[in-house]
Please model this.
Amino acid sequence: MSKPFPPSPYLSDNYAPISMECDAFDLPVTGELPRALRGTLYRNGPNPQYAPRDANYHWFIGDGMVHAFHIEDGRVRYRNRWVRTNKFRLERAAGQALFGSWGNPATTDPAVAGQAGGAANTNILWHGGRLLALEEAHLPVELDRETLATRGNVDYAGKLPRAMTAHPKLDPVTGEMLFFAYSADGPFTPALDYGVVDRTGQLQQIERFEAPFPSMVHDFMATRNYVLFPILPVTGSMERATRGEPAYAWEPAKGAHIGIMPRQGGAAKMRWFRGEACYVFHVMNAWESGDKIVADVMQYETAPLFNPDAGSARARLCRWTFDMAGDSDTFTRAYLDDMAGEFPRFDERFATLPYRHGYFACREDGSRTVGDYNGLAHVDLERVTRSVHRLPEGDVASEPVFVPRAADSAEGDGWLLATVYRGAEKRSDLVVYEAGAIADGPVATVQLSHRVPFGFHGNWLGAD
Model:
């Protein structure tokens, strides 16, 4: 008999897990779904199947559950499934949690010592003919695009050593998938791997390099000719973990270090830039402008997690600029917008290229705790304007996903899709906006009868 979940902020309200896998074949819709919107929105997020073994449970480590909304001819069907990772299967057989939080060996059952404990709970995307569920400390897991059945780990014919980031970059020009993995020499080590998978799904390149210190590197940046690795002072420590303390901690004295590597030059040509401490979970886009590299990121002045002094830490859209022709090892930072937000997205046909339109989940200052986003924002970086759709009181928005109207549509011509937790009703909806007019509210709302627990990332796969 499994144990009840203990009281915890990350196990209550819409962080609380749902206990079922289900299918719905024709969801109610208010408004009108665009007939040209045909495909599937996949979303991934934590949904622990068993109560945790220790007191350090965190939202980031729950078992991955994928939610799929298939849209066609104005109708929507829905399916959710847990990702059957090695961890999930072992714990399902045992009827209880076996792995300690963050893989802590002190709280992991000896029966699974040395076993892979990945949750595959952070992102999901299509590349090279595979639907991949991702998190940053373990191998990708392939799912069936229709049934969501787990097909198994993907190691690219044994060429992928141990992990892949949850945020690979898809190059719209070459079709390549660029990725990295931190702690490449083992938990909380300073080594990183960088790799490239070609458009057909074959791993073509992987190499290892050393960062200045072990860091939680959640996202990175890519341009046409460079990749950028932000080594920021949320540091990992096995000593802390084995003492029963959080494995990660904010150490601002270490500062910010950004490694810039030529895509064709490798780690031998890495160049490091330095700056004051900050933290970035997510990147909007990066590109080259003459001899400069420009990157738009959601920057926190202090880490919002693993930091007892975080207070009301908030991320804002910030532009980093690196002068590759100069001899300075510093870079400039300038905020582009003052609205607090997270989960930045854009028209990803313009990934690695100059772009104009960006979108993110947002909140008004002081209106919610960090992580509760009560609106969606669109920023026009050419006109320097922002438009916002504010949700009803008590509702919370997920990351927005942009879907182009057609393959050759102008940048920003399409729709924005997001899930919304309806706080008063304790359930979730899928909302669809015209991307250029989000302030007008959704053009269609798809109603679920249950909650989609707060998750992280999703992507759209258009119909064949």
User: Anything to note?
Assistant: The first strand starts at residue 23 and ends at 24.
